[in-house]
Protein backbone atom coordinates (compact mmCIF):
# COMPACT_ATOMS: atom_id res chain seq x y z
CA UNK A 1 0.00 0.00 0.00
CA UNK A 2 2.92 2.32 0.70
CA UNK A 3 4.07 1.97 -2.92
CA UNK A 4 0.59 2.97 -4.05
CA UNK A 5 0.67 6.05 -1.84
CA UNK A 6 4.12 7.00 -3.11
CA UNK A 7 2.78 6.75 -6.66
CA UNK A 8 -0.19 8.96 -5.76
CA UNK A 9 2.31 11.48 -4.41
CA UNK A 10 4.63 11.38 -7.41
CA UNK A 11 1.66 11.67 -9.79
CA UNK A 12 0.51 14.72 -7.87
CA UNK A 13 -2.76 13.15 -6.73
CA UNK A 14 -2.10 13.59 -3.02
CA UNK A 15 -0.97 16.57 -1.00
CA UNK A 16 2.39 16.46 0.72
CA UNK A 17 1.66 15.84 4.38
CA UNK A 18 3.53 14.51 7.38
CA UNK A 19 4.82 10.96 7.13
CA UNK A 20 3.05 10.00 10.32
CA UNK A 21 -0.31 11.01 8.84
CA UNK A 22 0.34 8.93 5.72
CA UNK A 23 1.21 5.98 7.89
CA UNK A 24 -1.95 6.49 9.93
CA UNK A 25 -4.11 6.70 6.80
CA UNK A 26 -2.57 3.50 5.45
CA UNK A 27 -3.15 1.72 8.73
CA UNK A 28 -6.76 2.93 8.94
CA UNK A 29 -7.40 1.66 5.39
CA UNK A 30 -5.84 -1.66 6.30
CA UNK A 31 -8.14 -1.95 9.31
CA UNK A 32 -11.19 -1.05 7.21
CA UNK A 33 -10.45 -3.70 4.58
CA UNK A 34 -9.32 -6.48 6.91
CA UNK A 35 -12.17 -6.26 9.39
CA UNK A 36 -14.93 -4.90 7.18
CA UNK A 37 -17.03 -8.05 7.27
CA UNK A 38 -16.29 -8.68 10.95
CA UNK A 39 -17.38 -5.18 12.01
CA UNK A 40 -20.67 -5.67 10.19
CA UNK A 41 -21.43 -8.54 12.56
CA UNK A 42 -20.90 -6.30 15.57
CA UNK A 43 -21.98 -2.86 14.29
CA UNK A 44 -24.84 -3.80 12.00
CA UNK A 45 -25.74 -0.27 10.90
CA UNK A 46 -27.66 -0.49 7.64
CA UNK A 47 -25.73 2.30 5.95
CA UNK A 48 -22.49 0.40 6.48
CA UNK A 49 -23.79 -3.00 5.48
CA UNK A 50 -24.84 -1.97 1.98
CA UNK A 51 -22.76 -3.09 -0.95
CA UNK A 52 -20.01 -0.65 -1.85
CA UNK A 53 -19.87 0.90 1.61
CA UNK A 54 -16.35 -0.42 2.23
CA UNK A 55 -14.98 1.35 -0.84
CA UNK A 56 -16.92 4.51 0.03
CA UNK A 57 -15.41 4.45 3.51
CA UNK A 58 -11.91 4.14 2.10
CA UNK A 59 -12.51 7.05 -0.26
CA UNK A 60 -13.74 9.11 2.71
CA UNK A 61 -10.45 8.57 4.49
CA UNK A 62 -8.36 9.54 1.45
CA UNK A 63 -10.48 12.40 0.05
CA UNK A 64 -9.29 15.21 2.38
CA UNK A 65 -5.72 14.64 1.20
CA UNK A 66 -6.37 14.60 -2.54
CA UNK A 67 -5.21 17.44 -4.77
CA UNK A 68 -7.48 18.83 -7.50
CA UNK A 69 -6.01 16.42 -10.05
CA UNK A 70 -6.38 13.65 -7.48
CA UNK A 71 -10.05 14.49 -7.09
CA UNK A 72 -10.50 14.40 -10.87
CA UNK A 73 -8.80 11.02 -11.02
CA UNK A 74 -10.98 9.80 -8.16
CA UNK A 75 -14.12 10.88 -10.02
CA UNK A 76 -12.93 9.05 -13.15
CA UNK A 77 -12.19 5.89 -11.17
CA UNK A 78 -15.60 5.94 -9.48
CA UNK A 79 -17.29 6.56 -12.83
CA UNK A 80 -15.44 3.59 -14.33
CA UNK A 81 -15.57 1.07 -11.49
CA UNK A 82 -18.27 2.35 -9.13
CA UNK A 83 -18.00 1.33 -5.51
CA UNK A 84 -18.51 -2.38 -6.02
CA UNK A 85 -16.00 -3.63 -8.55
CA UNK A 86 -12.54 -4.41 -7.33
CA UNK A 87 -9.82 -3.16 -9.61
CA UNK A 88 -7.42 -6.01 -10.14
CA UNK A 89 -3.70 -5.71 -10.64
CA UNK A 90 -3.88 -7.59 -13.91
CA UNK A 91 -4.93 -6.35 -17.28
CA UNK A 92 -7.15 -9.32 -18.18
CA UNK B 1 -48.16 -22.33 -53.80
CA UNK B 2 -47.51 -26.05 -53.40
CA UNK B 3 -43.81 -25.37 -52.97
CA UNK B 4 -44.54 -22.83 -50.23
CA UNK B 5 -46.79 -25.26 -48.34
CA UNK B 6 -44.20 -28.03 -48.68
CA UNK B 7 -41.51 -25.71 -47.36
CA UNK B 8 -43.68 -24.69 -44.42
CA UNK B 9 -44.45 -28.33 -43.54
CA UNK B 10 -40.77 -29.28 -43.81
CA UNK B 11 -39.82 -26.31 -41.62
CA UNK B 12 -42.41 -27.26 -39.00
CA UNK B 13 -41.22 -30.88 -39.00
CA UNK B 14 -37.64 -29.74 -38.61
CA UNK B 15 -38.66 -27.42 -35.77
CA UNK B 16 -40.54 -30.22 -34.04
CA UNK B 17 -37.48 -32.48 -34.37
CA UNK B 18 -35.29 -29.76 -32.93
CA UNK B 19 -37.70 -29.23 -30.06
CA UNK B 20 -37.72 -32.95 -29.33
CA UNK B 21 -33.96 -33.18 -29.60
CA UNK B 22 -32.49 -34.28 -26.32
CA UNK B 23 -30.47 -31.56 -24.62
CA UNK B 24 -26.75 -31.97 -24.15
CA UNK B 25 -25.44 -31.88 -20.59
CA UNK B 26 -22.28 -30.02 -19.59
CA UNK B 27 -21.42 -30.64 -15.95
CA UNK B 28 -18.82 -28.19 -14.63
CA UNK B 29 -17.53 -29.18 -11.21
CA UNK B 30 -15.21 -27.11 -9.02
CA UNK B 31 -13.12 -28.42 -6.14
CA UNK B 32 -13.41 -26.88 -2.65
CA UNK B 33 -15.32 -23.76 -3.66
CA UNK B 34 -17.29 -21.98 -0.97
CA UNK B 35 -20.81 -21.04 -2.02
CA UNK B 36 -19.99 -17.40 -1.34
CA UNK B 37 -16.83 -17.38 -3.48
CA UNK B 38 -18.96 -16.34 -6.41
CA UNK B 39 -20.11 -12.94 -7.66
CA UNK B 40 -23.63 -14.21 -8.28
CA UNK B 41 -23.98 -15.12 -4.60
CA UNK B 42 -23.55 -11.46 -3.67
CA UNK B 43 -19.81 -11.41 -3.03
CA UNK B 44 -18.61 -8.01 -4.31
CA UNK B 45 -14.92 -8.83 -3.85
CA UNK B 46 -14.54 -11.71 -6.30
CA UNK B 47 -14.73 -11.53 -10.09
CA UNK B 48 -16.63 -14.39 -11.77
CA UNK B 49 -18.30 -12.73 -14.78
CA UNK B 50 -18.88 -15.92 -16.78
CA UNK B 51 -20.46 -17.77 -13.88
CA UNK B 52 -22.52 -14.71 -12.98
CA UNK B 53 -23.83 -14.62 -16.54
CA UNK B 54 -24.61 -18.32 -16.37
CA UNK B 55 -26.56 -17.71 -13.14
CA UNK B 56 -28.49 -14.84 -14.71
CA UNK B 57 -29.38 -16.98 -17.72
CA UNK B 58 -30.36 -19.87 -15.46
CA UNK B 59 -31.22 -20.61 -11.85
CA UNK B 60 -29.13 -20.70 -8.69
CA UNK B 61 -29.79 -22.80 -5.59
CA UNK B 62 -28.44 -20.82 -2.66
CA UNK B 63 -29.00 -23.62 -0.13
CA UNK B 64 -27.20 -26.45 -1.92
CA UNK B 65 -25.17 -28.83 0.25
CA UNK B 66 -22.82 -31.73 0.25
CA UNK B 67 -24.10 -34.24 2.81
CA UNK B 68 -20.66 -34.65 4.39
CA UNK B 69 -17.77 -37.06 4.42
CA UNK B 70 -16.40 -40.27 5.92
CA UNK B 71 -12.86 -38.90 6.29
CA UNK B 72 -10.79 -35.79 5.62
CA UNK B 73 -11.11 -36.12 1.84
CA UNK B 74 -14.74 -34.98 1.83
CA UNK B 75 -14.49 -34.59 -1.94
CA UNK B 76 -14.32 -38.38 -2.44
CA UNK B 77 -17.62 -38.99 -0.66
CA UNK B 78 -19.16 -35.94 -2.31
CA UNK B 79 -18.33 -37.15 -5.80
CA UNK B 80 -19.47 -40.67 -5.00
CA UNK B 81 -22.83 -39.30 -3.84
CA UNK B 82 -23.20 -36.98 -6.83
CA UNK B 83 -22.42 -39.67 -9.38
CA UNK B 84 -24.43 -42.46 -7.75
CA UNK B 85 -27.31 -40.27 -6.53
CA UNK B 86 -27.01 -42.01 -3.17
CA UNK B 87 -26.65 -40.47 0.27
CA UNK B 88 -23.55 -40.62 2.47
CA UNK B 89 -24.42 -43.82 4.31
CA UNK B 90 -25.58 -45.65 1.18
CA UNK B 91 -22.42 -45.27 -0.90
CA UNK B 92 -18.75 -45.11 0.01
CA UNK B 93 -15.88 -43.45 -1.89
CA UNK B 94 -15.43 -46.43 -4.16
CA UNK B 95 -17.81 -46.44 -7.09
CA UNK B 96 -16.82 -49.78 -8.58
CA UNK B 97 -20.01 -51.74 -9.19
CA UNK B 98 -22.25 -48.70 -8.65
CA UNK B 99 -24.60 -47.39 -11.31
CA UNK B 100 -23.58 -43.83 -12.13
CA UNK B 101 -25.31 -40.85 -13.73
CA UNK B 102 -23.27 -40.96 -16.98
CA UNK B 103 -24.20 -44.64 -17.39
CA UNK B 104 -27.87 -43.67 -17.48
CA UNK B 105 -27.17 -41.01 -20.09
CA UNK B 106 -25.18 -43.53 -22.17
CA UNK B 107 -28.05 -46.00 -21.95
CA UNK B 108 -30.37 -43.29 -23.29
CA UNK B 109 -28.16 -42.84 -26.36
CA UNK B 110 -25.87 -40.07 -25.19
CA UNK B 111 -22.17 -39.85 -25.93
CA UNK B 112 -20.47 -39.56 -22.55
CA UNK B 113 -17.17 -37.83 -21.90
CA UNK B 114 -15.10 -37.18 -18.80
CA UNK B 115 -12.16 -34.94 -18.07
CA UNK B 116 -10.50 -33.70 -14.89
CA UNK B 117 -10.37 -35.03 -11.37
CA UNK B 118 -11.60 -38.51 -10.57
CA UNK B 119 -11.26 -39.69 -7.00
CA UNK B 120 -13.50 -42.74 -7.08
CA UNK B 121 -11.50 -45.59 -8.64
CA UNK B 122 -10.07 -45.91 -12.12
CA UNK B 123 -12.36 -48.81 -13.08
CA UNK B 124 -15.45 -46.85 -12.11
CA UNK B 125 -14.38 -44.01 -14.40
CA UNK B 126 -13.83 -46.41 -17.30
CA UNK B 127 -17.22 -47.98 -16.69
CA UNK B 128 -18.88 -44.55 -16.59
CA UNK B 129 -17.50 -42.69 -19.61
CA UNK B 130 -17.21 -43.69 -23.28
CA UNK B 131 -14.66 -41.01 -24.05
CA UNK B 132 -11.98 -39.38 -21.90
CA UNK B 133 -9.20 -36.85 -22.13
CA UNK B 134 -6.90 -35.38 -19.49
CA UNK B 135 -8.12 -37.36 -16.53
CA UNK B 136 -6.42 -36.94 -13.17
CA UNK B 137 -6.78 -39.91 -10.82
CA UNK B 138 -6.42 -38.64 -7.29
CA UNK B 139 -7.50 -36.10 -4.76
CA UNK B 140 -5.15 -33.20 -5.24
CA UNK B 141 -1.81 -32.19 -6.72
CA UNK B 142 0.30 -29.23 -7.75
CA UNK B 143 -1.77 -27.42 -10.41
CA UNK B 144 1.34 -27.07 -12.56
CA UNK B 145 2.15 -30.76 -12.63
CA UNK B 146 -0.92 -32.94 -12.66
CA UNK B 147 -0.55 -36.41 -14.13
CA UNK B 148 -3.13 -36.61 -16.93
CA UNK B 149 -4.40 -39.77 -18.55
CA UNK B 150 -6.30 -40.43 -21.80
CA UNK B 151 -8.06 -43.57 -22.95
CA UNK B 152 -5.85 -46.05 -24.78
CA UNK B 153 -6.95 -48.30 -27.65
CA UNK B 154 -8.62 -50.64 -25.13
CA UNK B 155 -10.78 -47.89 -23.69
CA UNK B 156 -8.75 -47.82 -20.49
CA UNK B 157 -6.96 -44.91 -18.89
CA UNK B 158 -3.34 -45.13 -20.01
CA UNK B 159 -0.05 -44.00 -18.56
CA UNK B 160 -0.03 -40.44 -17.16
CA UNK B 161 1.71 -37.49 -18.79
CA UNK B 162 2.19 -33.89 -17.70
CA UNK B 163 0.52 -31.34 -19.94
CA UNK B 164 0.29 -27.95 -18.27
CA UNK B 165 -1.74 -25.96 -15.78
CA UNK B 166 -4.64 -28.05 -14.48
CA UNK B 167 -7.60 -25.74 -15.11
CA UNK B 168 -6.49 -24.93 -18.65
CA UNK B 169 -5.77 -28.54 -19.58
CA UNK B 170 -9.20 -29.69 -18.38
CA UNK B 171 -10.93 -26.84 -20.23
CA UNK B 172 -8.95 -27.71 -23.38
CA UNK B 173 -10.04 -31.34 -23.03
CA UNK B 174 -13.70 -30.27 -22.83
CA UNK B 175 -13.40 -27.86 -25.77
CA UNK B 176 -11.68 -30.48 -27.90
CA UNK B 177 -14.40 -32.99 -27.10
CA UNK B 178 -17.21 -30.56 -28.03
CA UNK B 179 -15.52 -29.62 -31.30
CA UNK B 180 -14.80 -33.25 -32.19
CA UNK B 181 -18.37 -34.20 -31.36
CA UNK B 182 -19.68 -31.55 -33.76
CA UNK B 183 -17.18 -32.49 -36.47
CA UNK B 184 -18.09 -36.16 -36.19
CA UNK B 185 -21.63 -35.33 -37.34
CA UNK B 186 -23.03 -37.97 -35.01
CA UNK B 187 -26.65 -37.17 -34.31
CA UNK B 188 -26.41 -37.90 -30.59
CA UNK B 189 -26.55 -35.60 -27.62
CA UNK B 190 -23.61 -35.59 -25.21
CA UNK B 191 -23.04 -35.71 -21.48
CA UNK B 192 -19.71 -34.04 -20.63
CA UNK B 193 -18.33 -34.12 -17.09
CA UNK B 194 -15.60 -31.54 -16.46
CA UNK B 195 -14.17 -31.82 -12.96
CA UNK B 196 -11.65 -29.10 -12.22
CA UNK B 197 -9.09 -29.35 -9.42
CA UNK B 198 -9.33 -25.61 -8.70
CA UNK B 199 -9.69 -23.81 -6.37
CA UNK B 200 -8.41 -26.68 -4.16
CA UNK B 201 -4.99 -26.02 -2.63
CA UNK B 202 -2.06 -25.74 -3.28
CA UNK B 203 -3.05 -22.09 -3.61
CA UNK B 204 -0.76 -21.47 -6.56
CA UNK B 205 -2.69 -19.55 -9.23
CA UNK B 206 -1.77 -19.66 -12.88
CA UNK B 207 1.13 -17.23 -13.47
CA UNK B 208 -0.99 -14.46 -15.05
CA UNK B 209 -3.34 -14.54 -12.06
CA UNK B 210 -0.74 -14.20 -9.32
CA UNK B 211 -1.49 -10.93 -7.49
CA UNK B 212 -4.78 -10.59 -9.40
CA UNK B 213 -6.22 -9.72 -6.00
CA UNK B 214 -3.48 -7.66 -4.33
CA UNK B 215 -2.52 -8.88 -0.89
CA UNK B 216 -4.45 -7.11 1.83
CA UNK B 217 -7.21 -6.03 -0.56
CA UNK B 218 -9.74 -8.67 0.55
CA UNK B 219 -11.60 -8.55 3.87
CA UNK B 220 -11.34 -11.46 6.27
CA UNK B 221 -14.46 -13.62 6.47
CA UNK B 222 -17.02 -12.12 8.83
CA UNK B 223 -16.59 -15.16 11.09
CA UNK B 224 -12.78 -15.12 11.03
CA UNK B 225 -11.21 -16.36 14.23
CA UNK B 226 -7.54 -16.94 15.07
CA UNK B 227 -8.35 -20.34 16.62
CA UNK B 228 -11.32 -22.66 16.57
CA UNK B 229 -12.90 -22.02 19.99
CA UNK B 230 -12.93 -25.67 21.07
CA UNK B 231 -11.41 -28.99 20.07
CA UNK B 232 -13.33 -31.45 17.91
CA UNK B 233 -12.40 -34.28 15.54
CA UNK B 234 -8.78 -33.62 14.45
CA UNK B 235 -7.72 -29.97 14.44
CA UNK B 236 -4.51 -31.04 12.71
CA UNK B 237 -6.18 -32.80 9.79
CA UNK B 238 -4.21 -32.18 6.60
CA UNK B 239 -6.15 -29.13 5.34
CA UNK B 240 -5.64 -27.30 8.64
CA UNK B 241 -1.87 -27.36 8.28
CA UNK B 242 -1.59 -24.85 5.45
CA UNK B 243 -0.83 -22.09 7.89
CA UNK B 244 0.03 -21.92 11.58
CA UNK B 245 -1.83 -20.90 14.71
CA UNK B 246 -3.04 -18.33 15.52
CA UNK B 247 -4.41 -17.81 12.02
CA UNK B 248 -2.83 -14.47 11.19
CA UNK B 249 -5.09 -11.96 9.41
CA UNK B 250 -2.44 -11.17 6.82
CA UNK B 251 -1.93 -14.89 5.99
CA UNK B 252 -5.67 -15.54 5.71
CA UNK B 253 -5.89 -12.53 3.39
CA UNK B 254 -3.02 -14.00 1.37
CA UNK B 255 -4.88 -17.32 1.13
CA UNK B 256 -8.03 -15.49 0.04
CA UNK B 257 -6.13 -13.58 -2.65
CA UNK B 258 -4.71 -16.80 -4.08
CA UNK B 259 -7.99 -18.70 -3.63
CA UNK B 260 -10.03 -16.02 -5.38
CA UNK B 261 -7.42 -15.85 -8.16
CA UNK B 262 -7.84 -19.61 -8.69
CA UNK B 263 -11.63 -19.11 -8.93
CA UNK B 264 -11.34 -16.18 -11.35
CA UNK B 265 -8.97 -18.13 -13.57
CA UNK B 266 -11.41 -21.04 -13.46
CA UNK B 267 -14.20 -18.65 -14.45
CA UNK B 268 -12.16 -17.51 -17.46
CA UNK B 269 -11.63 -21.08 -18.64
CA UNK B 270 -15.32 -21.85 -18.19
CA UNK B 271 -16.03 -18.81 -20.35
CA UNK B 272 -13.97 -20.47 -23.11
CA UNK B 273 -15.95 -23.71 -22.88
CA UNK B 274 -19.24 -21.83 -23.01
CA UNK B 275 -18.00 -19.81 -25.97
CA UNK B 276 -17.29 -23.09 -27.78
CA UNK B 277 -20.88 -24.15 -27.20
CA UNK B 278 -22.11 -20.83 -28.60
CA UNK B 279 -19.86 -20.97 -31.64
CA UNK B 280 -21.22 -24.42 -32.44
CA UNK B 281 -24.84 -23.41 -31.91
CA UNK B 282 -25.13 -25.77 -28.93
CA UNK B 283 -25.58 -23.28 -26.11
CA UNK B 284 -29.37 -23.07 -26.12
CA UNK B 285 -29.90 -26.83 -26.14
CA UNK B 286 -27.34 -27.67 -23.49
CA UNK B 287 -28.10 -28.01 -19.79
CA UNK B 288 -25.11 -26.47 -18.04
CA UNK B 289 -24.52 -27.20 -14.37
CA UNK B 290 -21.97 -25.47 -12.23
CA UNK B 291 -21.36 -26.80 -8.73
CA UNK B 292 -18.55 -27.67 -6.33
CA UNK B 293 -17.92 -30.80 -4.30
CA UNK B 294 -17.75 -29.00 -0.96
CA UNK B 295 -16.97 -25.63 0.55
CA UNK B 296 -13.98 -24.45 2.55
CA UNK B 297 -13.36 -22.57 5.80
CA UNK B 298 -10.50 -20.34 4.53
CA UNK B 299 -10.17 -18.62 7.91
CA UNK B 300 -13.78 -18.86 9.07
CA UNK B 301 -14.11 -20.11 12.67
CA UNK B 302 -10.32 -20.43 12.89
CA UNK B 303 -10.39 -23.27 10.35
CA UNK B 304 -8.99 -23.65 6.85
CA UNK B 305 -10.48 -26.85 5.43
CA UNK B 306 -13.85 -28.48 4.89
CA UNK B 307 -13.76 -31.00 7.75
CA UNK B 308 -16.54 -29.39 9.75
CA UNK B 309 -20.29 -28.92 9.32
CA UNK B 310 -20.36 -25.14 9.36
CA UNK B 311 -22.07 -23.47 6.41
CA UNK B 312 -18.80 -22.37 4.82
CA UNK B 313 -17.71 -25.97 4.43
CA UNK B 314 -20.97 -27.75 3.49
CA UNK B 315 -22.82 -25.09 1.45
CA UNK B 316 -21.79 -25.23 -2.21
CA UNK B 317 -22.46 -23.18 -5.34
CA UNK B 318 -25.09 -24.67 -7.62
CA UNK B 319 -26.21 -23.13 -10.91
CA UNK B 320 -28.36 -24.79 -13.58
CA UNK B 321 -28.99 -23.27 -16.98
CA UNK B 322 -30.71 -24.70 -20.03
CA UNK B 323 -34.00 -25.94 -21.48
CA UNK B 324 -36.66 -26.17 -18.80
CA UNK B 325 -34.76 -23.96 -16.38
CA UNK B 326 -36.09 -20.47 -15.58
CA UNK B 327 -33.82 -17.49 -16.10
CA UNK B 328 -32.43 -15.31 -13.35
CA UNK B 329 -34.04 -17.22 -10.48
CA UNK B 330 -32.62 -17.93 -7.05
CA UNK B 331 -34.20 -20.76 -5.07
CA UNK B 332 -33.86 -21.15 -1.31
CA UNK B 333 -34.95 -24.81 -1.18
CA UNK B 334 -32.58 -27.03 0.81
CA UNK B 335 -31.01 -29.39 -1.70
CA UNK B 336 -28.16 -31.87 -1.91
CA UNK B 337 -25.62 -32.20 -4.67
CA UNK B 338 -26.82 -35.76 -5.20
CA UNK B 339 -30.28 -34.41 -6.13
CA UNK B 340 -28.68 -33.45 -9.43
CA UNK B 341 -28.66 -37.06 -10.69
CA UNK B 342 -32.49 -37.42 -10.83
CA UNK B 343 -32.86 -33.73 -11.71
CA UNK B 344 -30.75 -33.95 -14.84
CA UNK B 345 -32.40 -37.16 -15.95
CA UNK B 346 -35.84 -35.56 -15.62
CA UNK B 347 -34.79 -32.36 -17.38
CA UNK B 348 -33.39 -34.44 -20.24
CA UNK B 349 -36.58 -36.49 -20.43
CA UNK B 350 -34.89 -39.73 -19.37
CA UNK B 351 -36.51 -42.44 -17.21
CA UNK B 352 -36.54 -41.78 -13.49
CA UNK B 353 -33.72 -43.66 -11.73
CA UNK B 354 -34.98 -46.13 -9.13
CA UNK B 355 -31.83 -46.68 -7.09
CA UNK B 356 -31.10 -43.10 -5.98
CA UNK B 357 -31.75 -41.25 -2.73
CA UNK B 358 -31.67 -37.83 -4.39
CA UNK B 359 -34.86 -36.00 -5.25
CA UNK B 360 -35.45 -34.33 -8.59
CA UNK B 361 -35.45 -30.55 -8.41
CA UNK B 362 -37.36 -30.25 -11.69
CA UNK B 363 -40.60 -29.47 -9.83
CA UNK B 364 -38.87 -26.54 -8.12
CA UNK B 365 -37.47 -25.28 -11.41
CA UNK B 366 -40.93 -25.48 -13.00
CA UNK B 367 -42.47 -23.57 -10.10
CA UNK B 368 -44.66 -26.49 -9.06
CA UNK B 369 -42.98 -26.97 -5.68
CA UNK B 370 -41.01 -24.68 -3.41
CA UNK B 371 -39.01 -27.40 -1.69
CA UNK B 372 -38.26 -31.12 -1.74
CA UNK B 373 -37.49 -31.57 1.98
CA UNK B 374 -38.24 -29.70 5.20
CA UNK B 375 -34.86 -30.20 6.83
CA UNK B 376 -31.37 -31.22 5.78
CA UNK B 377 -28.84 -33.53 7.45
CA UNK B 378 -25.05 -33.36 7.28
CA UNK B 379 -22.40 -35.61 8.82
CA UNK B 380 -18.64 -35.72 9.15
CA UNK B 381 -16.96 -38.96 10.27
CA UNK B 382 -18.41 -40.13 13.58
CA UNK B 383 -17.49 -36.85 15.21
CA UNK B 384 -20.00 -34.25 13.97
CA UNK B 385 -23.67 -34.34 13.00
CA UNK B 386 -25.92 -31.44 11.99
CA UNK B 387 -29.46 -30.76 10.93
CA UNK B 388 -30.83 -27.53 9.53
CA UNK B 389 -34.23 -26.14 8.72
CA UNK B 390 -34.88 -22.95 6.76
CA UNK B 391 -34.33 -21.00 9.99
CA UNK B 392 -32.33 -23.08 12.46
CA UNK B 393 -29.24 -25.24 12.56
CA UNK B 394 -28.08 -27.63 15.24
CA UNK B 395 -24.58 -29.10 15.25
CA UNK B 396 -23.81 -31.99 17.57
CA UNK B 397 -20.32 -33.15 18.60
CA UNK B 398 -20.92 -36.64 20.11
CA UNK B 399 -17.34 -37.12 21.34
CA UNK B 400 -17.49 -33.84 23.23
CA UNK B 401 -21.12 -34.02 24.37
CA UNK B 402 -21.44 -30.52 22.96
CA UNK B 403 -24.17 -28.84 20.91
CA UNK B 404 -24.34 -25.64 18.91
CA UNK B 405 -27.62 -24.01 17.92
CA UNK B 406 -27.66 -21.17 15.43
CA UNK B 407 -30.47 -19.07 14.06
CA UNK B 408 -29.40 -18.93 10.42
CA UNK B 409 -31.82 -16.13 9.58
CA UNK B 410 -30.27 -13.77 12.14
CA UNK B 411 -26.85 -15.35 12.35
CA UNK B 412 -25.86 -16.85 8.98
CA UNK B 413 -22.18 -16.83 9.98
CA UNK B 414 -22.88 -19.15 12.94
CA UNK B 415 -21.31 -17.01 15.62
CA UNK B 416 -23.92 -16.89 18.37
CA UNK B 417 -24.49 -20.32 19.94
CA UNK B 418 -27.98 -20.43 21.46
CA UNK B 419 -27.84 -24.05 22.62
CA UNK B 420 -27.69 -23.17 26.32
CA UNK B 421 -30.23 -20.37 26.06
CA UNK B 422 -33.38 -21.66 27.78
CA UNK B 423 -35.58 -19.58 25.46
CA UNK B 424 -34.69 -22.04 22.72
CA UNK B 425 -34.84 -25.33 24.61
CA UNK B 426 -37.86 -26.55 22.66
CA UNK B 427 -36.20 -25.61 19.35
CA UNK B 428 -33.10 -27.54 20.36
CA UNK B 429 -35.19 -30.56 21.36
CA UNK B 430 -37.10 -30.50 18.07
CA UNK B 431 -33.88 -30.36 16.09
CA UNK B 432 -32.31 -33.16 18.12
CA UNK B 433 -35.36 -35.24 17.35
CA UNK B 434 -35.09 -34.36 13.65
CA UNK B 435 -31.42 -35.34 13.77
CA UNK B 436 -32.29 -38.77 15.18
CA UNK B 437 -34.94 -39.23 12.50
CA UNK B 438 -32.45 -38.36 9.79
CA UNK B 439 -29.94 -40.83 11.22
CA UNK B 440 -32.56 -43.55 11.17
CA UNK B 441 -33.67 -43.02 7.56
CA UNK B 442 -30.08 -42.51 6.40
CA UNK B 443 -28.64 -45.63 8.00
CA UNK B 444 -26.32 -43.62 10.23
CA UNK B 445 -25.53 -45.63 13.34
CA UNK B 446 -23.20 -43.15 15.06
CA UNK B 447 -24.01 -42.35 18.66
CA UNK B 448 -24.98 -38.75 19.40
CA UNK B 449 -23.18 -39.02 22.73
CA UNK B 450 -20.19 -41.33 22.96
CA UNK B 451 -19.32 -43.45 26.00
CA UNK B 452 -16.04 -41.65 26.51
CA UNK B 453 -16.30 -37.87 26.44
CA UNK B 454 -13.25 -35.92 25.37
CA UNK B 455 -12.40 -32.40 26.47
CA UNK B 456 -13.48 -29.32 24.54
CA UNK B 457 -10.64 -27.23 25.90
CA UNK B 458 -7.27 -27.51 24.22
CA UNK B 459 -3.92 -25.80 24.12
CA UNK B 460 -3.37 -24.21 20.67
CA UNK B 461 0.37 -24.20 21.30
CA UNK B 462 0.35 -27.99 20.94
CA UNK B 463 -0.84 -27.73 17.33
CA UNK B 464 2.03 -28.28 14.90
CA UNK B 465 2.41 -28.27 11.13
CA UNK B 466 4.64 -29.19 8.22
CA UNK B 467 4.25 -28.97 4.42
CA UNK B 468 3.02 -31.98 2.50
CA UNK B 469 4.38 -33.36 -0.77
CA UNK B 470 1.92 -31.41 -2.94
CA UNK B 471 3.16 -27.93 -2.07
CA UNK B 472 4.99 -26.17 -4.91
CA UNK B 473 7.72 -23.61 -4.35
CA UNK B 474 5.21 -20.75 -4.56
CA UNK B 475 3.17 -21.94 -1.57
CA UNK B 476 6.20 -23.20 0.35
CA UNK B 477 7.65 -19.70 0.27
CA UNK B 478 4.40 -17.96 1.10
CA UNK B 479 2.85 -20.24 3.65
CA UNK B 480 5.61 -22.32 5.19
CA UNK B 481 9.06 -20.74 5.09
CA UNK B 482 9.97 -18.56 8.00
CA UNK B 483 6.94 -19.69 9.94
CA UNK B 484 7.42 -20.86 13.50
CA UNK B 485 5.07 -23.80 13.22
Automatic annotation (TrEMBL), chain A:
The UniProt entry, under InterPro entries, shows:
TetR
Q: Which domain of life is it from?
A: Bacteria
Q: Which Pfam families match?
A: TetR (PF13972)
Know the name of this protein? TetR family transcriptional regulator
Organism of origin: Algoriphagus antarcticus
UniProtKB/TrEMBL annotation, chain B:
Q: Does the keyword Repeat apply?
A: no
Q: What molecular function terms (GO) are annotated for this protein?
A: arylsulfatase activity; metal ion binding
Gene3D superfamilies from the xrefs? Alkaline Phosphatase, subunit A
**Domain of life the protein comes from:** Bacteria
Similarity comment: family membership:
Belongs to the sulfatase family.
Q: From the Swiss-Prot or TrEMBL record, give the protein name.
A: Arylsulfatase A-like enzyme
Q: What does this protein need as cofactor?
A: Ca(2+)
Q: Which Pfam families does this entry report, sorted A to Z?
A: Sulfatase
Matching InterPro entries, A to Z?
Alkaline_phosphatase_core_sf, Sulfatase, Sulfatase_N
Is Nucleotide-binding one of the keywords UniProt gives this record?
A: no
What organism is the protein native to?
Answer: Algoriphagus antarcticus
Keywords (alphabetical) are: Calcium, Hydrolase, Metal-binding, Signal
Enumerate the spans annotated as Sulfatase N-terminal domain.
Answer: 23-349
Amino acid sequence: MNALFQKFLSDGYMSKIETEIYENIQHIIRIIITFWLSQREVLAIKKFTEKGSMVKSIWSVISPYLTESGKQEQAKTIAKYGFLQQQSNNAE
Amino acid sequence: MGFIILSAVTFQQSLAQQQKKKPNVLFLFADDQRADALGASGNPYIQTPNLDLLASEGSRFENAYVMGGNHGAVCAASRAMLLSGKSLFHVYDKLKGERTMPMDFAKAGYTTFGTGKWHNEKEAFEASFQQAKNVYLGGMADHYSLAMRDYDENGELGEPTFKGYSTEVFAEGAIEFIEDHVKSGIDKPFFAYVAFTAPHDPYSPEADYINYYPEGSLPLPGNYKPYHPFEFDDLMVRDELLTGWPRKPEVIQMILSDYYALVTHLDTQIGKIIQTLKENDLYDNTIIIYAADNGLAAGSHGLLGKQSLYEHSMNVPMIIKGPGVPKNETFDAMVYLYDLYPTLLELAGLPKPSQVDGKSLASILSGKDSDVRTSLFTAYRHTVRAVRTPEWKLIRYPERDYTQLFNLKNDPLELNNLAENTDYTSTKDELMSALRDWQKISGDTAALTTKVIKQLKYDPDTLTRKPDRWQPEYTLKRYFEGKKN
